[in-house]
Amino acid sequence: MKKVEAIIKPFKLDEVKERLAEIGVHGMTVTEVKGFGRTGGKKEVYRGSAYVVDFVPKVKVEIIVPNESVQQVVTVITEAARTGKIGDGKIFITPVDEVIRIRTGETGEDAI
Prior knowledge:
Layout: E1 2-8, H1 13-22, E2 29-35, E3 42-46, E4 49-53, E5 56-65, H2 70-81, E6 90-95
Antiparallel strand pairs: 1-5, 1-6, 2-5, 3-4
Helix pairs in contact: 1-2
């Protein structure tokens, strides 16, 4: 099993969620986050004064999937979240040793 974490633009969340549902992914955790990458934030103008917003609002989507589904999930997220502009986000994939469903005690892929 793998954990797929995607940091995306907030307005792309609904599209990503819908596209993932189409391929059978129904469970995910979504967190509002802030951060910056190479651009170091963005410049804003407020009442005629320019200032830098250090942290840009993003959404983090976390999904646990079987190994054989990872590439399809990554492809769907990439296509749905892409705008072609700076700040589209990143995807991280990490191994998951075990998953346990608290309610039933199911483990492994049965618990996803």
